[in-house]
């Protein structure tokens, strides 16, 4: 069945066996007879071999098929296709079956696991009315569980429609033995017979499996058999699985079990016992059966209909074949209004023409994405993806369209944009001027001065330098550059021209920003006009004095200014102020009300707390503060900042209190605020300390910078992807390939790991560029890159040069068995003819394939693959693949080629 048996020859009614002798390579002729067969049975020359049957999803062994093997002391191995017909002719098939089944059951009884033993029963044995009795007696005498034995029956046994056959099958089933229909698809079993007989398993003949990767007809037959078997409640087994590509296709089709060389040859009891010790063994009776085909169809239809996004399928003529309600609602239609029609039936002509043009591109292989699609007459916005759907041969069968309603996101985006504009205007109107520099101290951002109309950042920096007093420019620059190596917060003062008022004293402060490695990557700073800063302090004093109790109004209000190195350079106002009525014409109550409303309604989080380090308490917070922290005023009112349920950043607060104690303020401190729900919000906090009637208070202003950090991370990720990606093909580039190769080599050092490297160099690509032009050449590279990505979707593919590609395949010794055939077939798929601008372009490739050895490093394995690629190129074949181990048999005698390449 799964072995290339020699065909048996007949001579004078006897069977002539052609076999290889055990001691030489000469062909010998050995005449088989009933006596010789009977003697072999009695001497134990005929023995059971076990071939594993595995669960295609988990890889676990769930059964073994018992196969008869004859090892003759003179003729050596004699093929079953020679001695099975002889046993049938001379009436020994029953004795042979009893012997093989009994020995197999006794042997398997000592193995761990709940696997099934399956044995094939010859059609002629069904003429024996005692067949079921013999099988049951044999199994029971061995002690092996009856329910773990399956009998395989070929279709031909069912054709006679003999009542005794029906009775034998029913008796076996009633006793608990499982039944399997073998070699299905090659005989004439009818649907009536499938339904009438209580089969547990249905086995697909190997002829269909072997051709399924190249013949779409075989694939369709297999898919139909799988659906038929599962709909009747049967487990479906595929025979003759020899390559991983076949196994992958069978898994995709939903096939249950697989049998063939890919999973293991038929071995004797000793080797099979070793196999069980190192492989996962499953229980077929506990295997969860897949949903039946019609159930899966109903499930998918329910998901399709209830999907929260719009989905539809079009055929190659752009006719809607399937539409869910969400999709049809985009156009205020029902699915029935669209199915069977093209877009021209419900869209204006110009809109339909544009959509059809996009669909043509999709059918030619492009994926068309429309980020902002607004159906005519609708106020909704949709994100639409159009993608081609291919069958297993890569032939287009239609187009899939997905539409997501993003109206809410677009509205939010608009609001965020307006908020961002508002923030910019707030900055522009602020007396503070933000600035930033790189790690080396080069200023690369400057906010606008109050009287500056320049928008361009470079122009602002130039204008700022021009406004600085000539005597201060060199001094400030020298101070700044000398300070940078310290990595500490920076502060200086200088004079700057504002409008026509002459020079004003300005205070500039900056703090370093550190990267993940702890190194400074940039500096953030702010410039404040000293007069504006003092004015703010005056207004705060007015608010504090107005808010004091009547009993306290006879006392002075003292404002404590932070000392700094420039006390002698500027004239400070007196530190003690007497309370007075506002000078702006407002009544005291109106003034207090206005300031409190400004505090409570400010869009930036603000809080007022007492200043004691350990016992600081909340005095007042605004709505923006409560929203940011996720807390209510009732939860934190009067509580200390370190109390459970009210603290937001314990780990950093002590240090900031020290800053307030030492210098009376801090600015742009990076703090991760802990919200009530445990989530964190990255913020920048500035604070000012002030004293009223001998009591010290802290005013904190908190700015949420999470959106800025998100945008920064997105930009960094985009740059990383861009640096690792080849712009033309969209594949990883050489730098990324080198990085991944080192990683995969380090990971592939396990005893069963196999890392395969294939190096491809296109054949005839220079001729394409020279004769058809570089634009056509670029399109060829794009198509080949797309095909490589599709054929090796789960592997790593990179473009490592102009027309060179590299492929890394991770597998194990088990999965590497069919690798050669898989690569050959996929290279044929990749280098099919390409149609570009009404021209057919044909390309090929020289491919060198090698496997990572224990002593290899990145350089050695890459060099070996490159050497094999050049050997392949020397054959002048359009598609040539050279594998490790192929050199001797395919290039023997051509030492010049080999030596020149290696």
From TrEMBL:
Domain EAL, chain residue ranges per copy: 30-280
Gene3D superfamilies: 3.30.70.270, EAL domain, PAS domain
Pfam family name, one: PAS_9
PROSITE patterns according to UniProt: EAL, GGDEF
Domain GGDEF: 753-886
Entry-linked InterPro entries: Biofilm_reg_signaling, EAL_dom, EAL_sf, GGDEF_dom, Nucleotide_cyclase, PAS, PAS-like_dom_sf, PAS_4
Keywords attached to this entry: Plasmid
Keyword match Chaperone: no
UniProt entry tagged with the keyword Aminoacyl-tRNA synthetase: no
NCBIfam families to which the protein is assigned, alphabetical: GGDEF, sensory_box
PANTHER family named in the record: BIOFILM ARCHITECTURE MAINTENANCE PROTEIN MBAA (PTHR44757:SF2), DIGUANYLATE CYCLASE DGCP (PTHR44757)
Protein name: ABC transporter permease
């Amino acid at each position: 069945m799964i072995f290339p048996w020699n065909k048996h020859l007949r001579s004078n009614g006897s069977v002539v066996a052609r076999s290889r002798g055990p001691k030489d390579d000469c062909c010998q002729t050995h005449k088989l007879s009933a006596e010789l067969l009977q003697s072999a049975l009695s001497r134990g020359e005929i023995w059971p071999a076990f071939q594993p049957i595995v669960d295609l999803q988990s890889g676990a062994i769930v059964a073994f098929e018992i196969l008869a093997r004859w090892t003759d002391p003179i003729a050596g191995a004699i093929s079953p296709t020679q001695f099975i017909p002889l046993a049938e002719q001379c009436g020994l098939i029953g004795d042979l079956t009893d012997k093989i089944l009994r020995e197999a059951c006794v042997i398997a009884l000592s193995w761990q696991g709940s696997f099934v033993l399956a044995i094939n029963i010859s059609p002629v044995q069904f003429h024996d009315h005692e067949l079921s009795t013999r099988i049951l007696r044999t199994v029971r005498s061995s002690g092996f569980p009856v329910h773990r034995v399956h009998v395989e029956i070929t279709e031909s046994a069912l054709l006679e429609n003999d009542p005794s056959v029906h009775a034998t099958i029913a008796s076996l089933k009633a006793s608990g033995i499982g039944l399997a229909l073998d070699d299905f698809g090659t005989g004439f079993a009818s649907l009536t017979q499938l339904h009438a007989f209580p089969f547990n398993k249905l086995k697909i003949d190997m002829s269909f499996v072997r051709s399924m990767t190249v013949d779409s007809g075989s694939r369709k037959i297999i898919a139909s058999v799988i659906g038929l078997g599962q709909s009747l409640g049967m487990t479906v087994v595929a025979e003759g699985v020899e390559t991983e590509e076949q196994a992958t296709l069978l898994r995709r089709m939903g096939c249950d079990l697989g049998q063939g060389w890919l999973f293991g040859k038929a071995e004797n009891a000793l080797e099979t016992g070793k196999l069980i010790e190192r492989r996962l063994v499953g229980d077929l009776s506990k295997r969860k059966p897949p949903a039946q085909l019609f159930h899966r169809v109903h499930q998918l239809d329910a998901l399709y209909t209830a999907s929260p996004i719009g989905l539809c399928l079009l055929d190659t003529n752009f006719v809607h074949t399937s539409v869910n309600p969400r999709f049809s609602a985009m156009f205020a239609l029902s699915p029935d209004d669209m199915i069977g029609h093209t877009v021209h039936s419900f869209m204006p002509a110009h809109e339909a023409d544009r959509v059809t043009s996009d669909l043509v591109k999709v059918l030619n292989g492009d994926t068309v994405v429309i980020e902002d699609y607004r159906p005519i007459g609708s106020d909704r916005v949709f994100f639409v993806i159009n993608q081609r759907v291919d069958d297993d041969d890569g032939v287009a069968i239609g187009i899939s369209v997905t539409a997501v309603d993003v109206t809410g996101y677009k509205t939010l985006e608009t609001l965020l944009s307006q908020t961002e504009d508002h923030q910019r205007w707030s900055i522009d109107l602020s007396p503070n001027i933000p600035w930033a520099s790189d790690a080396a101290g080069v200023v690369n951002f400057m906010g606008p001065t109050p009287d500056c109309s320049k928008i361009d950042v470079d122009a602002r920096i130039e204008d700022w330098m021009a406004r600085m007093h000539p005597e201060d420019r060199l001094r400030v620059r020298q101070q700044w550059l000398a300070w940078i190596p310290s990595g500490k917060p920076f502060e200086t003062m200088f004079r700057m021209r504002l409008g026509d008022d002459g020079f004003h004293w300005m205070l500039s402060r900056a703090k370093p920003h550190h990267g993940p490695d702890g190194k400074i990557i940039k500096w953030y700073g702010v410039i404040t006009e000293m007069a504006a800063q003092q004015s703010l302090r005056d207004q705060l004093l007015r608010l504090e004095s107005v808010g004091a109790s009547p009993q306290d109004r006879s006392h002075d209000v003292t404002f404590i200014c932070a000392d700094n190195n420039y006390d002698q350079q500027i004239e400070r106002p007196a530190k003690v102020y007497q309370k007075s009525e506002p000078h702006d014409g407002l009544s005291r109550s109106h003034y207090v009300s206005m300031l409190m409303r400004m505090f409570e309604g400010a869009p930036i989080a603000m809080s007022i707390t007492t200043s004691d380090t350990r016992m600081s308490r909340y005095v007042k917070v605004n709505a923006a503060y409560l929203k940011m922290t996720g807390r209510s005023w009732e939860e934190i009112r009067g509580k200390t900042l370190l109390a459970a349920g009210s603290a937001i950043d314990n780990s950093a607060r002590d240090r900031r209190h020290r800053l307030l104690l030492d210098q009376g303020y801090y600015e742009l401190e990076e703090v991760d605020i802990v919200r009530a729900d445990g989530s964190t919000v990255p913020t920048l906090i500035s604070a000012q300390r002030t004293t009223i009637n001998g009591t010290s208070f802290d005013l904190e202003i908190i700015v949420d910078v999470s959106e800025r950090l998100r945008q920064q991370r997105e930009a960094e990720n985009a740059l990383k992807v861009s640096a690792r990606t080849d712009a033309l093909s969209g594949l990883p580039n050489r730098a990324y390939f080198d990085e991944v190769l080192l990683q995969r080599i380090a990971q592939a050092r396990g005893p069963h790991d196999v890392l395969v490297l294939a190096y491809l160099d296109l054949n005839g690509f220079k001729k394409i560029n020279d004769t058809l032009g570089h634009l056509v050449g670029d399109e060829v590279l794009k198509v080949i890159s797309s095909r490589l990505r599709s054929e090796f979707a789960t592997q790593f593919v990179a473009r490592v040069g102009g027309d060179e590609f590299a492929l890394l395949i991770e597998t194990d010794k088990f999965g590497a068995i069919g690798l050669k055939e898989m690569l050959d077939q996929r290279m044929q798929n990749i280098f099919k003819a390409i149609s570009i601008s009404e021209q057919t372009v044909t390309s090929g490739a020289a491919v060198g394939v090698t496997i990572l050895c224990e002593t290899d490093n990145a350089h050695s394995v890459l060099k070996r693959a490159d050497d094999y690629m050049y050997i392949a190129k020397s054959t002048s074949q359009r598609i040539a693949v050279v594998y490790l181990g192929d050199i001797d048999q395919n290039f023997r005698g051509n030492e010049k080629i080999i030596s020149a390449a290696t």
